[in-house]
Amino acid sequence: MTVTEKLRIGTRGSPLALKQTGQVIDLLKLQHIALQGQGVIETIVIKTTGDREQSRLLSEIGGKGLFTKELDEAMLRGEIDIAVHSMKDMPTFMPEGIMLHAITERLDSRDAFISQKAKNISELPEGATVGTASLRRKAQLLNLRPDLQIIPLRGNVDTRLNKIIAGEVDATLLAYAGLKRLEKEDVIMSVIDPDEMLSAVGQGALAATCREDDLRANTLITTLVHPATTLAVLAERAMLALLDGSCQTPIAGQAQFISDEELTLRGLILRPDGLEKAEVILTGNASEAERLGTRVAERLILEAGPSILDAIKRDQSIFIKPNISI
Predict the structure, then answer these.
(1) How many angstroms separate the CA atoms of 165 and 47, rounded?
(2) Is 170 considered catalytic here?
(3) Under a CB-based contact definition with an 8 Å cutoff, are residues 25 and 61 in contact?
(4) Are the C-beta atoms of 75 and 209 separated by less than 8 Å?
């Protein structure tokens, strides 16, 4: 085997990122006998700006694309062939020359409640502190419980769990799917109903990227694609694209199949302070998933009205953007 035949997979170095990458590698080996040999696949750990900058919120330093920037650059330089990510960490618009795939079946997309002082959000004492770096979670928490004190909390899963144990915050919220992949479901006090906390776009699904012109990498990834997950994520990300969603905009969305051919998309946009929210639920043909996402976003803009949009525009304008694809 020559060096050029090796499949180089880039990933962040967090325990969750490494676990997810390992799971994708296992699936690739099951699908492709040629990848089962010793040393055929190489994992390359790349530290991203989002990993290095732990003292500030992502919304202050450029958004969630900072978890993918260095991996994208390494890919475009030809240093890696594939990168594995959590879909919810993917920027709304991909860099030119890079292809995004939704892969494997999505796990439970809900958020999990972790605390040593309460079983769920409603049982938290008045004025309790909740640690989260997510404006989506912060806005929905304040909409439910305006009395709560929301404190910025970043870091990998273990870092955040340790801060709960140390009593630095009374509670935090984490993606159930990530805890399941890490086999840490035992820390969960309760899984939050979507009526209380709607998940991030793409949450629970994995993503893989490669260069658009890399036929081998594209072929390998597409064998792992779960069609229903891909269509649901297409709808959610099309909604996000129209709203120009980022870490600076409290937006949530979840698409689900209600029959073999019908897809329902629930979208939510909130004021950053949680005082108001607008919610839209529409159903459409699964074959027109992106169109469904666009329709939900257009309706959300109308439903939100000036009071919500003006509050958001103080930080970031909402523009009409072209559809994206996976």
Answers:
(1) 27
(2) no
(3) no
(4) yes
By residue range, what is the domain housing residue 79?
1-106+205-225
The residue from 51, 72, 89, 244 that is catalytic is 89
The structure tokens listed for 228 are 């229903």
pLDDT above 70 coverage of the chain, percent: 87
Encoding tokens for residue 287? 């074959």
Q: Are 36 and 173 in contact (CB under 8 A)?
A: no
Sorted by sequence, the CB contacts under 8 Å of residue 55 that are 6+ apart come out as none
Residues 115 and 34 in one domain: no
Tens of pLDDT along 62-97? 455 666 889 999 999 999 999 999 999 898 889 999
CATH of the domain at 136: 3.40.190.10
Record the pTM.
0.88
Give the C-alpha distances (Å, rounded to integers) separating 318 from 250, 280, 298, 309, 315: 12, 17, 11, 8, 10
82 and 2 share one domain: yes
Q: Tell me, yes or no, whether 197 lies in a domain.
A: no
List, in order, residues 6 or more apart from 305 with CB less than 8 Å away: 278
Domain membership of residue 154 (yes or no) is: yes
Q: What is the pLDDT of residue 102?
A: 86
